[in-house]
User: What shape does this take?
Amino acid sequence: MTFKLEPNPTFRATAEISQPGEGAEPLRLPLIFRHMSRKQYDAEIVEAKLSVDDAVRRLVVGWEVPGVEFTAERLDKLIDDHAPASGEIFATWLKESRESKRKN
Assistant: This one.
């Protein structure tokens, strides 16, 4: 892979969303996230003191779910209907955008 100074404006990652019920398998949700530089993240998320729900609304720009069109209203419904979803989605974004992928 060739090094690029400018990252893509979006990236794909799959979040695992908890479901209620003993032994329930997490839902795998393929998402399209907005990339943010450290300065953007600090200004738009940290300094703005956004809640996790609002941060997810800012960071998620789409999903790849067959037959389910992505809209802001559907993202809100997901956040509302699946209580842990916003935290799990935000954790996925942090892991993918802020953690090193190098192996030792």
In short: DSSP finds four helices and three strands in the chain.
